[in-house]
Amino acid sequence: MKKIFLSLCLLGVISNASSQEFANAPKPFGPVPTQKQIDWQEMEFYAFVHFSLNTFTNKEWGYGDESPELFNPSQLDVRQWARVVKEAGMKGIILVAKHHDGFCLWQSAYTERSVKNSPWENGKGDLVKELAAACKEYDLKLGLYLSPWDRNHPQYGKPEYITYFRNQLKELLTNYGDVFEMWFDGANGGDGYYGGANETRKINSLTYYNWDETYKLIYSIAPKTLVWGVGPSEARWIGNEEGRAGKTNWSLLRQKDELAGKVHYTEFMSGHEDGEKWVPGEADVSIRPGWFYHSVEDDKVRSLDEMVDIYYESIGRNATLLLNLPVDRRGLVHENDEERLKELVATIKADFKKELLAGTKIQASNTRGVDSNFGPQNVVDGNKNTYWATDDKVKQATIEFTFNKPTAINRILLQEYIKLGQRVKAFSVEANVNGQWKTIANETTIGYKRILRLDRVTASAIRVNILDAKAGFVINTIEAYNAPTFVKEPQILRDKNGLVTIKSEEGNAVYYSLDGKNPSEKSTLYKTPFIYNKAVEIKAISRNTKEKINSAVKTAKYGVSKEKWKVISVSSGDDKSVERIIDGDANTDWGFGNDENKLPQTVVIDMGELVSIKGFTYTPQQVGNNLNLISNYELYTSVDSFYWDKQSEGEFSNIKHNPIEQIKSFTAVKARFLKFVATAAVGKAQTVSIAEIGVVE
């Protein structure tokens, strides 16, 4: 059996043997990966760690004026990070060594804005050094993130800062051992402290850093380091922060166009079929809504459903998966995050427990030179360096697997031999069910790895049809599995009047609890929507009654319902539809502001009674291509709508690329009225939208 390189499952056994050279072996076609890129792609799954001053200021992006003295974790244990990562099957950790606020987690010789001026370990600590040692102990690779943008540095935007930036690169790449990936964020330039200037500084991210020279510096110091992000990188962002690659995903990129500013980031999800350079995709996502830790997100860890989808839509779509773990104020990976990782590991491991094609009869419609060295048996031989190949001009062919007896399957895994390039443009999968061939999948690219989740079929045979390719193709692996039935969590909804609706997949029963206890099939059976307008924690499960399998527990927390809420004034926009912002439905939205009614724009809400609150939430528009996102805000409260107190102001950091519910906390106050002011928008627009405004009680 060819064991899959599923980092997550710890199943893979990777051969180090070199592929045997044959006289009539296929030649490389188009751009091909370097060995460094192949080694990187074979890691498949690794961790991101965001932990810095933002963890202690409750921000996503620091402004650059925060005191280093705030950094003081009480139980910092990088060995715990490494253990959690290793047990999840991940192969490395990329640490955010310096984020946009400029605070450094190592003892940099070039700035005082670092751990040296924090109370942690009396200013003697070096977090990068400690993590490097932990990675070595747990056989993990170390990667580093160094923000090009520095909102603290007084010289940012000037040539002097580039010298500073490169000096810090030298420190990180020479003092901590091998670095498998250097991560450069695309967020560059904007408002900041800048040594006290408190101004906005715009730069051209393609030219300011002189990336060609910066990359030469990196490779001269650390030739084994793969560089990701801005500039002539060796791997690309996948174009979203949801961890999802496109169904079509080429490892190629028109990088010359990208460096000329001619490629929109949304194209990164699929890459370019005609790209001139091998630049595979890396899908990054946080296990929580935010990248840094916020205690209000302890109950908002991504569901098991979503984590499983992310796995299949990243690693299963020819990308690597970079999963962020926001280390908490103690300096630990939170137990809720660790628990979700364990559930994910168990699910994926069960999905790929037994491979089903190794014992089948295999035949192909074409084999290169009628040479058994390139025969179809190679796709199940467990050797990553052998492959089934066709003649050069053959761009369509079929490989068929016949079982000894009808066999149930619902997963197909395929891999191209990418050392010779990515070639397949379209393929299908058929199953022979009761003597009839039935198409069960029509897909496009394969690349390093493609995993298909299919409806379960019981087949006497299956065949994979390569329908179109750039050249004669080279298929390294084809595998099939019968994964256990996965029951998706139910969806819990509550409207402004307190009406609770719980939805599940058709045919599944739903059980729920209102007392905070995990439900079982002995709990209350959901039948119809019901009213519950008090503060409550609802927990629910879906149950496949036929197979007696339960979903993971879905949890939804609600404060007192918004039935008494009403919008009493708006500075612009349609006052007839403004109630959408308090209807409890994030899929409805309302907009205000335009070229005649420029920002700032205001909306005032009456909550109907005096309420004790300690924060507010803004959910941006969720549907559409242009989400009209608010970037900066002010929030005021009042008990009488005459006298107002400002409770919060600032920015919704990173909302452009992560347009999720924004949660802002403040000291608890009693209020009846809210005044929300949109002071600026993403992209300097004048029209902004709101899907929902809420409060944290």
In short:
The protein has 697 residues and is of the alpha+beta class. α5 runs parallel beside α6. 46% of the residues are buried.
Mean pLDDT: 95
Derived from helix and strand composition plus strand pairing, the structural class reads alpha+beta
> Major sheet: size, sense and barrel closure?
8 strands, parallel
Spatial order of the strands forming the largest sheet:
7-4-3-2-1-12-11-8
Q: What does the radius of gyration come to?
A: 27 Å
EC number: 3.2.1.51
InterPro entries: FA58C, Fn3_assoc_repeat, Galactose-bd-like_sf, GH, Glyco_hydro_29, Glyco_hydro_29_N
Signal peptide: 1-19
Protein name: alpha-L-fucosidase
What's the SSE blueprint?
Layout: H1 35-43, E1 45-50, H2 53-57, H3 78-87, E2 92-98, H4 127-137, E3 141-146, H5 159-174, E4 181-184, E5 190-192, E6 199-201, H6 211-221, E7 226-229, E8 236-237, E9 252-253, H7 255-259, E10 277-278, E11 281-286, H8 304-314, E12 319-326, H9 335-351, E13 361-364, E14 388-389, E15 397-416, E16 424-433, E17 436-443, E18 450-469, E19 474-481, E20 491-494, E21 499-503, E22 509-513, E23 524-525, E24 530-531, E25 536-544, E26 549-550, E27 554-558, E28 566-570, E29 590-592, E30 601-619, E31 630-638, E32 645-651, E33 662-681, E34 688-690, E35 692-696
Parallel strand pairs: 1-2, 1-12, 2-3, 3-4, 4-7, 8-11, 11-12
Antiparallel strand pairs: 5-6, 9-10, 13-15, 14-19, 15-18, 15-19, 16-17, 16-18, 20-21, 21-24, 22-23, 22-25, 25-26, 25-27, 28-30, 29-34, 30-33, 30-35, 31-32, 31-33
Family: Belongs to the glycosyl hydrolase 29 family.
Keywords: Glycosidase, Hydrolase, Signal
EC number: 3.2.1.51
